[in-house]
Amino acid sequence: MSTSDTNYKVDHLFLLVGENPLPNYIAAKMLLKEGGTVYLVHSTDTASKADCLKRRLDPVNIELISLGKSEADSSVIRDKIQNQVKKILKEHPNATFGLNYTGGTKAMSVHSYRALFEASGVDDAKFSYLDARSLQMLIDRENDSPKPELVNEKLSLEEIFDLHDLRWESDKKPVTKPILPELAIELAKLHTAPSLVIAWRWWCDNVLKPATKLLKKKQNKAPEWEWNKDNQIDKVILKPDIAVQQMNKALQEYLKQPEEGKSLLEAFQQENFKTVKGLVNFYNALWDPEYTQQIEKVTKLLVEEKYLGESEIELSLNQFAEKSKQSADKPHLEKSKDACRWLDGLWLEHYVLHQVQLLSENHPGLINDSGMSFKVKDAKKEKFEFDVAFVKDYQLFALSCTTDASKSLCKSKLFEAYIRSRQLGGEQARVALVCCYDKPKDLADEMKVDSEVDKKDPKIVVFGCKELDNLHVHIKNWIEEINCYYAP
């Protein structure tokens, strides 16, 4: 059968609505004849999903068939479907029928199949299934293996989210153009060295955050870090040699001749050694000598890219944000706290988005939509985020990003992305973690075991610090590896 042969299309198509409406949407677009009708068979729990499908499929003719809470009751399912068939045949005796049993529960699939197969007056009903492995529509054939048909539907990220009735927060639309991609590329190259990963993470946690954040108490909640107002964010020490200079200067101030009649010890004892505690805190906020050489590499990069002057010893966050605005037609950092977020790790998300879009430019047609920073609310008003995502045809690829190198945090990020990607993209969805962990394959294998996924299955992958350089090449290989693994 050629791809142009459409004898699998029917006038009346029954779809079983499950937790993920995406397969139903694809089936309706592919299997229904023009002017035909779709029947959404749903339970009480999936009524909202059926409503989303009805809205998204408009102006297609849609009828809802509710099973209530009897989604496992064979007699209810049989009666609902066969009564609908009788009603149709009274008006259209030559109508054709089909059932796509991708969605719904296993019980719904079995009983619905039998109900339509045994329905009086129905000849040659078309039964089909959207295969998550091959991404093909499998058309059942009597006494033969199913016939695979290519799926040519292309969806945007917004359409996938809309199928779940998810919306962006009004003031937080997804980012479609990366900020400072050239600088992010250079930072990614530096982060291929595990020693620099640790050093830069140390600077972000021990220098950048304490200088730009406040720990605020929440009523009846644990305290949380919050960004200072922009006009309260000071410059941040960036050159490692300033640590020694500042420490010497502070010591000179603290060790001045004490008041007449008081010993140095008595001066320190005042206010319960507050001066000494201040010295210790000050020291802890300065560079760890072990990281000096690695931090200098980032400093050198910022000087070369003209984000720092040759003689500057502090990073002006305001100046950094202003520098990003030099090109009027490019997205930029609005405020100094945005610069903080970018330096603290958001640069990696912008880098990953840039690499995905570079791949799309180099291979037209491979990726039909991409973006980052998806901040949405679900029906229960719970917020969740996607870092970076792209769509190949109708298949969702979700990429979680972190500059952290610790196994526990990386695994947590990967697990959350895996759950969310399946919620949105179903079994067809694929997930990756882009991180700075130095044993990415071990982490991916461990996650596959926990998720009962074949270790050779590339649906879950981790890109570590060694893959950060030219990441688009590794993403392309990942896509091709998936195609090969799931090839019929």
What does this structure look like?
The protein is an alpha/beta fold and 488 residues long. The protein folds into 2 domains: 10-153, 3-Layer(aba) Sandwich (Rossmann fold), CATH 3.40.50.10770; 154-217 and 330-488, Trna Endonuclease, Chain: A, domain 1 (3-Layer(aba) Sandwich), CATH 3.40.1350.10. It contains 16 helices and 17 strands. The strands form 4 sheets. The chain has a 7-stranded mixed beta sheet, sandwiched between helices. The radius of gyration is 29 Å and the shape is elongated.
Task: Give a quick precis of the structure.
Helix content is 43%, strand content 20%.
Write the layout of secondary structure elements.
Blueprint: E1 10-16, H1 22-31, E2 32-42, H2 47-57, E3 61-66, H3 74-91, E4 97-100, H4 106-117, E5 126-130, E6 136-141, E7 144-150, H5 157-163, E8 167-168, H6 181-190, H7 194-212, E9 213-218, E10 221-227, E11 236-237, H8 241-254, H9 264-269, H10 274-284, H11 292-304, E12 314-315, H12 317-323, H13 336-362, E13 369-377, E14 383-392, E15 395-401, H14 407-425, E16 430-434, H15 440-450, E17 460-463, H16 471-485
Parallel strand pairs: 1-2, 1-4, 2-3, 4-5, 15-16, 16-17
Antiparallel strand pairs: 5-6, 6-7, 8-13, 9-10, 11-12, 13-14, 14-15
Helix pairs in contact: 3-4, 6-11, 6-13, 7-11, 7-13, 8-10, 12-13, 13-16
